[in-house]
Amino acid sequence: MKIRKPSLLSIKDRIIRAKHILIAGHAGPDFDSAGSCLGLYEILKGLGKEVSLGTFFREEIWQRVSETAPVTRDFNGKRSFDLVILLDYGKMQHVVQYVRNYIDSHDPCVITIDNHPYQDQQGDVVWVEEGSAATAEMVYDLARFHHWFIGDTAAFFLLLGIIAESGALGFYPIGKKTLHKVMRLVRHDDDLMRIAYMIRGWDGPDDMFQYGAFLKTMRTDKNLKLIYGVSRVQHPKISEIAVRAVHEAMFVKGYTIMFFLRSVPGSSEWYCSLRGSKDNTVDLNLLAARFGGGGHFNSAGFKSSESSATIINKMKVFIRACQKRTPEKS
Which of 199, 217, 248 is the last residue of a domain? Predict the structure, then answer.
């Protein structure tokens, strides 16, 4: 779905009329979810709106990002909101539970802004644009379209979302328009360095050594052009390490699909991070959907309570079937 002025005008109309606004993303946020939420939060505060964030900052990414700038407002279940803006979530089941409960019990006006493929996103206004590099880029487009001021703090958060979601501008085809936006959002000479450290930095050498141990668990299937790993190791940065492992695997010649299964702490579930290289022909969003997840063509994820062996077998069957239907490029 392309950007349409009527959609952006309808979003503006609802924002201008709202007195109290709640912004929320998906549970277990990534940097695009955090960056788009905080970027919009700062922009709407600049418009004089009363804004709250639907998060308790318990997740590591929220804690890391919130250190960049003071965030004074948080979700308050006693407050009444006349507008809820949902960002970067793909499926309603991925929106944080207490925000979904609030929507169900209070029936506020809801706006969705999302760069995931359309799945079951809901709202009075639903703006889904898979062609955007990140939901943070869509927030930028919204603000620029209406000539809303984007301060340095908001710019940093939106830049963080775009850089992280696009894999430092490497996961998706990034055109000149997105690059021009990135240039406008860079306000200080060290912005990109700060973002690189936030996304990739280690808190100490032990973290780096643990990452090396994870890489040793990776396996390959040459026929499927697949690299994958499985780990039950509990580590404070397990999520970050797993995602980084599949990102690095994207640059291995001759392999086009990468995934990592990690056990979910305190449960029998597995979480899977999926990535595809530029030569991948398998829709990873459809693959993740088989397990109740979702995402993009080359970037997706899901949770499953099945055994790791069963998950891997089902994934290989799906990949093999898709690759057989897609002839090799001559």
Answer: 199
